[in-house]
């Protein structure tokens, strides 16, 4: 009877652990959906530099590497750019929760802790980097319709906003990518609850496939929308696959 009670307790504990892990992965799914929609609204446009010669030619030397960005932002209305930010910033907490889910997928140890830390750090930075597209894009819109005497202060403001966006976006994406790289390595080493084949669902290879595929159709609005949401689409694929693996393997899950 005592053995049966102990087995029942272990079974209940395992079911609870699986349920909690599934919930965290579903938080990742929800976040990835919100951020994918936001990315498509915010940057999912086909480049049309010929329509904006002021930005692509006249002011290009002053804009520098940000000239293409300034042109890209003209394709979206202020309302569209705003809604390209809100779903992402208000769902960022779901990505933070999902980072705990990724941690629980990995075998306990130093690598799991580091992977969790860099993912959490990257997700924590991401709202500011994402919102920066809106503020910088709105300055670019004002610049397009400004009189020449207003160009110098607007260009200065644009460059400052773009620098802030660039620093936070690169730090966020770089940190998140590092976290996924650690998970990819651990998956291949069979040190996660996922099968080794799940390495193909990791956001790094999935994102590479999406980015390369979309680059083949530079004038396609669909490719532009999907390409603009590459990283979050890739994370959506991963979280869906991970949640399916957890559900299928359930209480009997073992690393790799």
UniProtKB/TrEMBL annotation:
- Taxonomically, what lineage is the organism? Bacteria, Pseudomonadati, Pseudomonadota, Betaproteobacteria, Neisseriales
Pfam families under this entry?
Answer: DUF6796
Which domain of life, per UniProt? Bacteria
Q: What's the name of the protein?
A: Uncharacterized protein
Is Magnesium one of the keywords UniProt gives this record?
no
Stretch forming the signal peptide: none
Q: Which residues cross the membrane?
A: 21-46, 81-102, 114-135, 167-185, 197-218, 224-246
Ordered alphabetically, the record's keywords are: Membrane, Transmembrane, Transmembrane helix
UniProt keyword Heme present: no
